[in-house]
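Hi Prof. W.,

I finally got the VOC family protein prediction working! I wasn't sure whether to trim anything, so I left the full sequence exactly as given:
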Amino acid sequence: MGFHEAQVNLYVEQVSTSRAFYTRFGFVESFRTPREGEPEHLEMRLGGLILGLTSRAAVRENDGPTLGAHQRVAEVVVWCDDVDRLTDEAVTDGIRLASDTRSHRGRRIAWLLDPDDNPVKLVQE
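And this is what came out:
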């Protein structure tokens, strides 16, 4: 078919702010454009996931989809070893919690919000 990789793209206000947020979960930058200054788009990897961060301004300038102020089109799921500890640390660092940490179907879960209110689900087996 020609398809060989997939990624999640999130539309964000400031790519560098979102980059700093996702770095805390182990994502590593693998691509950016432009190479110097504030990026319009960058890609980060964690395991097999490629996460793209694209500025809302770049989407508008390139005649991309119309973006609502609070539009949610995806979530980023991050598997981890200790949801409770990592959630507590995130909240201490000023990250907003979107749900209480809880058990669900044999897993511990919690949702955080990134700087643009995109949901980030933490999951522990």
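The chain has three helices and nine strands. Does that look reasonable to you?

Thanks,
D.
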